[in-house]
Hints:
- By secondary structure, the protein is of the alpha/beta class.
- It is built from twelve helices and nine strands.
- It has helices at 16-28, 33-42, 49-67, 115-128, 141-150, 164-177, 186-203, 218-229, 245-251, 262-270, 274-289, 306-316, and strands at 77-87, 90-99, 104-110, 134-136, 155-157, 322-324, 330-332, 339-342, 345-348.
- Strand 8 and strand 9 (345-348) form a beta hairpin.
- Helix 2 crosses helix 3 (49-67) and helix 9 (245-251) packs parallel to helix 10.
Amino acid sequence: xxxxxxxxFKGFRFPPEIIVLAVRWYLRYGLSYxxxxxxxxxxxxxxxxxxxxxxxxxxxxxxxxxARLCRHSVGDRWFVDETYVxxxxxxxxxxxxxxxxxxxxxxxxxxxxxxxxxxxxFETTLGAHCEPVExxxxxxxxxxxxxxxxxxxxxxxxxxxxxxxxEADHGRLKARLRxxxxxxxxxxxxxxxRGHALMQNIRRGHYELxxxxxxHRRVATAFIELARTIRTDTDRSFGLAxxxxxxxxxxxxxxxxxxxxxAFRAYADYMETPAFLAGVEGLLTLARxxxxxxxxxxxxxxxxxxxxxxxxxxxxxSIQVVHLMHDGRLTLHAPTxxxxxxxxxxxxDVGITPPLSVN
Length: 359
């Protein structure tokens, strides 16, 4: 068993251990909600399959959001394609991108297949990741137009069979959806497809999660670590975090809406003040004279304000930032998802216009 802060699961009848276990099983294996109901009943847990559905819909987005700061940098060669799923009897288009290492970069669900949708998919993806050197696609006109507009410097590869990597990866998603009795709503489809991408990336080792566990225990350990990071009260309908009352006044009017926690929003606002800029100049002056490290009581950088400082140094000052991990490895900083550079300052607001991309 493991300890999870109760506030994240407040109002739910079952303990966090049972909820996280059910969500993990559903995302990992080809099980239906009724299959999970039966498996849990065999272990002495009497729960209705509708409750399991609600757990998956509520906690999958929270787990995915908590994991994005632990994610490894994506590669510079992207394989992009769209596939199809049926939602309430109607076809939906799922844009997906993976890199040369097999990491799922982003997914996006849309009722249409057109240039406007392809452009939005790439805009959201580029807002979270650096521009690739090469983009491999099929001959779809919408993808070609979006790439020429948004990534003119990238090589667009449309050779036959070059896109087999993403075509084969579609099969993993289809295999997971097959045991279901069909997706009923677009929101449900987005949550499930996003959760599938999270699970695949954890299994393939693309997150700094479960790194000390054995391979067959990586997923279970990763979900335990993620569950411990969900610390705020949760809206049971859609998994939306409610603001901490002590921070609400400082961050209520913040423009940095891509940051979930009000404390981070308030610090992002502070980064625009002369006091912060003067502090950065002092830090850089010290770094020019001797090796310098920024440290904090937080054990990992993605849970600390250090990540916002690193964003400023990398994107505004064009300074390379590396993080010292627990095992001695040095990892290159990846900009926080949702950040953009505007008039020499950072704004965290990319991808916050509904309906959201599934990242």
